[in-house]
Structures
1.
Amino acid sequence: MDIQSLQLFAGFTSTAMFVTSNLPMLLKAYKTKNLKSYSFGHIAMSNLGNLIHWLYVSSLPVGPIWFLHGFFTAATALMLFWYLRYEMGWPGSNRSENPT
C-alpha cells in the first residue's frame, strides 16, 4: 500500500469515526428536545468557526474532509436551530406555557 492510499484510508476511517461519535448527541437532542446541558456560546462559536473554516476547506480537493466538514457544519447548525427553538422558545416550539 503506497502512502497516498494509506492517507486516503486514514481520512475515510477518521471521518467515519468522527461522524459516528456525534450521532448519539444529535439523536438525544432530537428525541428529548432538552439542550440545557449545552452552552449557547459554544454552539454559536462552533457555527462561526465552521463558516470561516469553509474558506480553507473549499481550497482543498474534494475528499473525506469535505464530507467531514459538511457533517460538522450541518450538525452544529442543527444544534443551534434546536437550541434556539427549544431552549430560547422560538416561535413554533412545543414549549407549554405555564399559566399563572
Note: The chain has a mean pLDDT of 88.
2.
Amino acid sequence: MDYEFMTAGTPLPPCLPFPEALVKLPVSGTAKIMYCRMLDAMLTRGIEDENGILFVYFPVKQLAAALSRCNMTVKRSLNELENVGLIMRVRQQGFGEPNRIYVLIPKKGIEKA
C-alpha cells in the first residue's frame, strides 16, 4: 500500500463539517454522521424559507442510501437528533411532501441527558 504524508500544502479530500459539540452528545455514531451530512447539504445546497432561514429536504430513503443504513436506523437517528435539539423537522402540507429539515447549530458544551 502506498502512503502519502501530509505537508502544509497537501490538499485534503472533500470533508464533512463535524462540530466539536457533537463529540460528547449522547447520540449514536450514525446520528452524528447524519448530522454532519445534513449540515454539509444545508451549507452547499440549502434552501431559504420565507424568513431567510436555510433548510434541506432529505427524504429517509435518500439519507439511508447516503449513509448505507436501513430506513429504520435512519428514522431512529433522526429522532435522536430532534430529541437533543440538533434538527427541527417541519411537516409540509400535502400528501407525500417531504419534511423541511432545519439543521440547528449546537452550542459549545451542550450537556443534555
Note: Residues 28-91+98-103 form a domain with the Arc Repressor Mutant, subunit A fold (CATH 1.10.10.10).
3.
Amino acid sequence: MSDPTIVWFRHDLRLDDNPALAAAAARGPVVPVFIWAPEEEHPWEPGAASRWWLHHSLSALAAALDKAGMPLVVRRGPSLEALRSLVKEHAATHVAWNRRYEPAVIARDTGIKKALAKDGVAAESFNGSLLFEPMHVATKEGRPYQVFTPFWRALLARDEPVEPVAAPKKMKAAPGRGGKSVSIESLGLLPAIDWAGTMEKTWKPGEAAAAKRLSRFLEQGLSGYAAGRDRPDSDGTSSLSPHLHFGEISPRRVWHAVRDAVGGRPAKAITTGGAESYLRELGWREFANHLLYHFPHTPDAPLRVDYARFPWVNDPVGLRAWQRGHTGFPIVDAGMRQLWATGWMHNRVRMIVASFLVKDLRISWLEGARWFWDTLVDADLAANTLGWQWAAGCGADAAPYFRIFNPTTQEEKFDPDGVYVRKWIDMQRGYPEPIVDHAEARKLALEALKTVSRST
C-alpha cells in the first residue's frame, strides 16, 4: 500500500470535481482534514454569516466522507503545525489542496509549501475553484485585464474549461495511526445569540443541496434568466453564490451543466438568452478573482489611486440607518432587511444599496464592504471588492461616480408592483422619513467628485 496523502479541505467542501481529492485517491489512502485558522486570513477573517454557513457545510462534508468510510479530521491552526502533526501521525508523504486566491491565503500557502518541501513532504496544489486561473489570462502585452468585456472575449476565445470529474468511486481511508479530531461544534462557528432563524429556513448548505439548487435553476430559471436576474420581486436567480464560494459545487460543473441545458453548444456560440447571461455572470466571477490576484491591495484601497483622496463623510448615524434598513427609501431598506434576515441580497438591490451608501450618504465603500463581509453568506473577497469598487467608481470597469442611482426610480423599474418591498417592509407601522434629500445628495456627491478630479 502506498503512503497516505493529507487532503486539506478549504473552499472546496465537496467530493465531486475536486482535483486535490481525486489526485490523492488515485495515489492511495487519504486523510481528509479541515483546519480552522481564521487569524491567518487577517484582516478579512470569515464574518458571522460565513461562519454560520461553514458550520453546516462542514457537517455536510463530514457526513459525505463518513458515508465513503473516511472520517473528516478537524483541527485548529496554525495550519502548518496542524499539517506537520498529521503528516507525522499518518506517516504521510504528500499533502494536497485546491488553491485559493486571497492575498493573505496565497502568502500563507506559499510559506507552507516551502516548509513542507524542507520537511521532505511533497505538497501539491490544484485549481478547484475557477474556470481558468488568473495567472494564465493576460492581454496581448502580458498585462492583467482591467475591463470586463475584453477579458470575457479572451475567455471565450480559449478552449472550453475542462470537463468536471465525478467524485472518486473508491477511496481508501488511511490506517489508524493516531490523529484525533476536534468536533465541528467546538470551533464555535454558530452565533451565541440565535439570530440565524430565517437563514435556517432560507438555506441548506452542503454539496447535495448545491446540486439540487443547480438542477432546479436549470429547469425553472435558466430560460428566463436574462430578464429575471434584474427583478428582486421574483425568484429569477440561481442563488448558487454561497455554494460556489464554499466550493460545494465547482464552476466547471455549473458551466458545463448550463451548456448541456442548451444543447451542449460551445459557450462562444451561445450569444443570446438566459444561458448566455448566466455564463457571463460566471465570467464576472472569474474577472473578480483575476483582479484580486493581480491587484492584491484592492480589498483595502481603491484600484484607481486618485480616489484615495475622495472626501468621504464620517457619518455613524447614517451608516447605522443604512445597516438596519431605516433610511426611508423602501427599496434600500428592503434590501438591507433581506440581508440581515437571510444573509443574502438580490444583486440588483446590492447595486442600489451600495450606490445609496457611497453617493447619497458619501460614506466610504470600505464601510459597506465590511458590513457585507460580516452579513453575507456568500461573502467572497474577490466579488465583494469588485462590487463595492464598481459602485464607488474607484475600481476596474467601474460605474462612473457621476452615475448615481435614484432609489425611487430604481424601485419603480425593478419592483413596479411593490412585491419585494412589501415582503420586507411594513409601510404602515412607523416607517421613517427619508434621511436625505436625494436630489440634494446627488449635487453634493458631484461636488465631491470635482475635488478628486482637481487633484489628479
Note: The beta strands are 5-9, 30-36, 73-76, 94-98, 122-126.
4.
Amino acid sequence: MTTIERTVSTTRPPDAVFPYLVDFRNAVEWDLATVSCERVSGDGGPGTVYRTVSEFAGTEVKLLYTVETVDEPRRFVIVGRNDSTTSHDTITVSPRPERGSTVVYRAELTFTGVTKLAGPIMRPLLDRLGDRTAEQLKTALDRL
C-alpha cells in the first residue's frame, strides 16, 4: 500500500469547506489529476457513487468512487476502485484556533496486477502530484 497525505490550511471556515469537499464533483477544481467527475447515483451521502476520469503519468485512469462515510462537519471517506487500483481517501476538516480550517487529505492506494509491480516507480510521481494538488486545493478553498 502507498499512502499520500497532505495538510492544507485555509482562511475559510469548516462550514464552507466541508460541503465543498463532500461534493466530490468539485474534485475537478482542486485535484490536478481529475479530468472529470460525475455523480452516478445517490445524494452525496453514504452509498453515493461517482465516476471519475483522471490523468496520471500520461495514462487515463477511470475509477468508480463510493462514499463510505460522511461525518459532518469533520470527516469524509470515499473509496475508488478499478481493476488495478483501490484508493481509500479520507478527508478531515478541523477549525483552526485563529481563523479558518485545516484539511488533511489522506489517500491510501493499493495496486494489483501489473500496476503493483510499478508501485516503486510511481511513488515519486504520486508524491509530486500530492504536493501540486495540495497547492491547488488551498487555492480552491481560499476562493470559496
Note: The chain has a mean pLDDT of 93.
